[in-house]
Structures are given as structure tokens and as C-alpha cells.
Amino acid sequence: MRPVDEQRILVTGSTDGLGRSVAAELAARGARVLVHGRDPGKVEAAAREAGAEAGLVADLGELAQVRRLAGEAGELDTLVNNAGVIEPRRRESADGYELTFAVNHLSHFLLTELLLPRLREPARIVNVSSIGQAPLDLDDLMMERSYDGYTAYARSKLAQIMFTIELAGRLADRDVTVVALHPATLMDTNMVRKNLGRPMSSVEEGVEAVLRLATDPSLDGVSGRFFDGTRESAPHAQALDPDVRRRLWEESERLTRAATDTPPCALGRAERFGRRWLVDGMNVIGSRPTGWWRDRPRAMRELVEEMDRLGEPVTVVFDGRPFDLDGGEWVEVLFASRSGRNAADDDIAALAAAEAGEELRVVTSDSDLADRVRRSGAEVVGAGAFRERLDGLR
């Protein structure tokens, strides 16, 4: 991992309690910290107090705001998913989901997916969970049959751990680790005092545990684990069931997709410039059979250099393991958020849907992908025609 003073770190829920202290300590160690909260006044105060790079405002109870947060966050080295709520009475989020599950699990599930291409490897994801865990009822995730505030909290925290373990497996081909932890028992925070009774430990104890997982070089490569404080621990048995983890993942994707009416997307918005070209990179490279597969990275670099000469904004999505690939002045380079067949296609379709209504030309000769992006209103340009445009610049 990089030294802390070379890292850019987002800490969600960092205007109060544990998150605020973690953000302040990371900033004191030289990190470029992004403070997050839902109250603009509190965000401004916490960011100023910590000496943070920026303060980001978003209500995690609304998934559209989660998407905006991901776009504003930009490139990161570490993501600390800390924000959380406990609701004594059942309430629903802006998207119609049980609020505790929506904020504690779904928002961080979506935020992490959106930020994966923005994580600069080696990178770390730390999910702040709890030793208080209760098994999920996958047929009643919204707890419509019966509701108890602590049970809802404990279920959402187990969901975070299940997400951690499942994501670790899906990131096996990337230098990105993800861990979950119970920072300390009943820390002296407003949330504990209001909802869980008398504090039993200090915020400083929790900060120590979080910072260890976020910054300790001895934990390089440690992924898919749960920690109780600074010690590795076993989570609830349900978290170790791969079938349950897979079902929760699929349901989380469905819920986050339904809330935004777009496909699940593991890409944040490019704030550097507005998009006009969205390019299926390997499809364009493959449109000219010149033996490129013998040196795949070289072919990708050459395509990026050619597109940069267009002098027009381009976002290109490549399949395969990410590597250091400079986009130049005009090109934003993204790698598919997961490995496997059609990974880049899924991300391109999601980006096209997210950019619906904006001027966008999607470059691909894949008929299935072309049909998907046309449904979002984007113009489709064939890889061959785009290649001819590039050749004309020579």
C-alpha cells in the first residue's frame, strides 16, 4: 500500500462520532481526506476542523444522491464505509426501502460498485460493521412482516459483512482488498447514547481499529475478513454460506437498479469533462485484425493515443486487468468493473443509461450492446467507422 500521506481517502458518515475522528486522524497523518455527511453545515464544519481536502454532501437514504456522491468523490486510494443509522421505528428511504437496510447496506453496496474503477491500486475498502449481527430473512429484507430497531440494525451489519466476503472473491484479479470490522463495543457516540444505552468504550479505541485496517502495511493482501477491534474474528455463520451471499448480492443489485431505473453500474461520473464518445475499447481494437493479441497493453496504449488526437472528449472502457494507462488530455480510461464475459458491455450500457438525455455517441459493433445503448437514447457508431475517423487523423 502507499504511505498514508500519499493517499486520497473518503470516509462516509464523517461529521460525527467515529467517522469524524477517523477522518481527522487520517488528515493529521497527511492523507487527502474527503469528509461526507448529509447536513451541509456539519460537513463544512467537520471538513474545516479536520483540514480535509473537501466535504461532500449526500443523503445515503436516497440512491440517486449516492450516485452523485460517487461522481464527486473521484479517484481514491481507500474507501471507509462508515455511515450508519439505527431506527427505533420502521421508516422507509426515499426509494421505498427499509431505511436502516438502505443506509447501512444498500448505499454502501452501490457506492462501492460505483467507485471500483476509481480505486487506485493497491487500494483498500474498509466496511464498518458490528459484532451485533442477526441472520437475514432474504424473503423479507424490508422487514415488512415485523420490525424491531436493533434487529434491523444487526441484520444490516451482517449484510455488510456478507458483502465484504463476496466482494473480496470478485476482486481476486485486482489489487484491491476489502475487510469489515466491529470497531469497539458501544463507543461513546451520539448514536450509542440515543439508541443503545450507556457507552462501554471510547471513540479512540474504535479509531485505532479502523486506522489499522485502513493503513497498516502488514495487512497488505488481507481481504474478505472480519475483525473484532484489531483481532480477526468469525462472523455469524450465515455470512459463510456462499449461496446466501450470492442471493444477497443479486437482490442488492436488483434493488439498487430498480431505485435508479438504470442497470447496476460500477462506474462513477467523469467530472473532468462532459462525455461525447463512449468507446468499447477491445471492440475497436479487434476491428482491425493485426495480431494485437500478442501485445494487448501496447494495442490499448496505441488506441488511446489515437483517440487523444481527436481533440474531443472520449471515455473508453477496456476488458481485462487494470494497469497504468495514461489517457492524455482528452481520453478517460476505465477498466471493466469485474472480470468475465460481457463485463465491459454491462458497464458501457450502464453508463449510457446514466447519461440518458445528454449528447453521447457509443462506439461498438457488438449488436447486442448496440441494441442496449440505443434504448437509452444514445447514438451508435460502428467500430469500423470510428476506426476510419481515427485513421483520417494520420
How are the SSEs ordered, and which strands pair?
Elements (H helix, E strand, L loop, with lengths): L7 E4 L5 H12 L3 E6 L2 H11 L3 E4 L5 H11 L2 E6 L17 H17 L3 E10 L20 H22 L5 E7 L7 H6 L7 H13 L9 E4 L2 E3 L8 H19 L16 E4 H6 L9 H13 L5 E5 L12 E5 L7 H12 L6 E3 L3 H8 L4 E3 L1 H9 L3
Helix pairs in contact: 1-2, 1-7, 3-4, 4-5, 4-8, 5-8
What does this structure look like?
With 394 residues, the protein is of the alpha/beta class. The protein is built from 13 helices and 13 strands. It has an eight-stranded mixed sheet, with helices on both faces. Strand 5, helix 5 and strand 6 (176-182) form a beta-alpha-beta unit. It starts with 7 loop residues before the first strand and ends with a helix.
Quickly list its features.
globular; five-stranded parallel beta sheet; 394 residues; Rossmann fold; 40% helix; 2 domains; 13 helices; alpha/beta; 16% strand
User: Biggest sheet: strands, sense, closure?
Assistant: 8 strands, mixed
Total of domains = 2
CATH architecture of the largest domain: 3-Layer(aba) Sandwich
Instruction: Give the strand tally.
Output: 13
- CATH topological fold name of the largest domain: Rossmann fold
Radius of gyration: 21 Å
CATH level-four homologous superfamily name of the largest domain: NAD(P)-binding Rossmann-like Domain
* Rounded average pLDDT: 87
Q: CA-to-CA gap between the ends?
A: 41 Å
Strand content: 15-25%
Question: Which CATH class of the largest domain is shown?
Answer: Alpha Beta
The low-confidence runs, each spanning 5 or more residues with pLDDT under 50, are 261-274
Number of helices: 13
